[in-house]
Amino acid sequence: MSQIIQRNLHQTRKETITVSADKQIRFDAAVDHGSFSPSHWHEAIEIIYVLEGTAVVTLFDQTVTLGPGQLLLINSGLVHASRCPSGNRTILVQIPDKFLSACLSDISRLWFSVDDNCTDPGVQRDVQHLKDLLLDMMHLQESARPGYLFSFNKDLFEFLELLYQKFLREMPGDYQPKSTRVLSRLDAVLDYTHQNYSSQITLRNAAGVAALQPEYFFRFFRENMGTTYLQYLNDYRLSRLYRDLLVTDLSIRELEERHGFSNDKLFHKLFRERFHTTPLQARKTARRLERSEKDSSAT
């Protein structure tokens, strides 16, 4: 864990948090037919609570597979990637630092640790209380009855108080926030990548954006993002392609061209490594799950 903490990016964000105007947090309870989010960070605590299926979360060199009933908290600024390999139903909560700063004076030192596998009865009871509050918030949001926000916010603040009282930990002493210069370079490189990923980008191109020599840039990116730049670029291409795979009827070849994959053999190899299936089978599975969900809703 110390290596993760040393590389933590706590003072900026790259993923934009979309909060609802009435809650000022993000609270989603939904079915995911399959998704992939490459390495990113944000200025928000993130909680993933799996209700059905599985979710796979990578925190640098640690990969956690969450099954039904399991919960994971990701601290603000921690670089992570996530994927839903075969469909799931989860509660996803993102609580921005800005929201917490209205109640706490120094959020820069916050570090929470929720161990869902702890065998201590007291810890198990507190973790279950967190889960019960999330479920109650989900049911309140689904009902959307007049005035439900009173009860929702009551649960939310009870959830946060429980986190603060029971799961707040001392931030490890080897944590070293990244300098503004490092963060600005990362922001520039990721912005450049997101805007140009469908074109052929070389390591030298990305290094030039960061104003670094390619050899140094290779180490710089891996140390701060937990992956090489080429791996990140291909992961980002896969994530964008995967979305179109599920919502369009474009051919696989058209999707490859649209999202920057010029080598068909390499694309299929990367896709199978990431999703453990073929693109066509992934599309069929997602469509089948979608039809099943609609049929269930109709009945």
TrEMBL record:
<feature type="domain" description="HTH araC/xylS-type">
    <location>
        <begin position="187"/>
        <end position="285"/>
    </location>
</feature>
<keyword id="KW-0805">Transcription regulation</keyword>
<dbReference type="GO" id="GO:0043565">
    <property type="term" value="F:sequence-specific DNA binding"/>
</dbReference>
<dbReference type="InterPro" id="IPR011051">
    <property type="entry name" value="RmlC_Cupin_sf"/>
</dbReference>
<dbReference type="GO" id="GO:0003700">
    <property type="term" value="F:DNA-binding transcription factor activity"/>
</dbReference>
<dbReference type="Pfam" id="PF12833">
    <property type="entry name" value="HTH_18"/>
</dbReference>
<keyword id="KW-0804">Transcription</keyword>
<dbReference type="InterPro" id="IPR014710">
    <property type="entry name" value="RmlC-like_jellyroll"/>
</dbReference>
<dbReference type="InterPro" id="IPR009057">
    <property type="entry name" value="Homeodomain-like_sf"/>
</dbReference>
<keyword id="KW-0238">DNA-binding</keyword>
<dbReference type="InterPro" id="IPR013096">
    <property type="entry name" value="Cupin_2"/>
</dbReference>
<protein>
    <submittedName>
        <fullName>AraC family transcriptional regulator</fullName>
    </submittedName>
</protein>
<dbReference type="InterPro" id="IPR018060">
    <property type="entry name" value="HTH_AraC"/>
</dbReference>
<dbReference type="Pfam" id="PF07883">
    <property type="entry name" value="Cupin_2"/>
</dbReference>
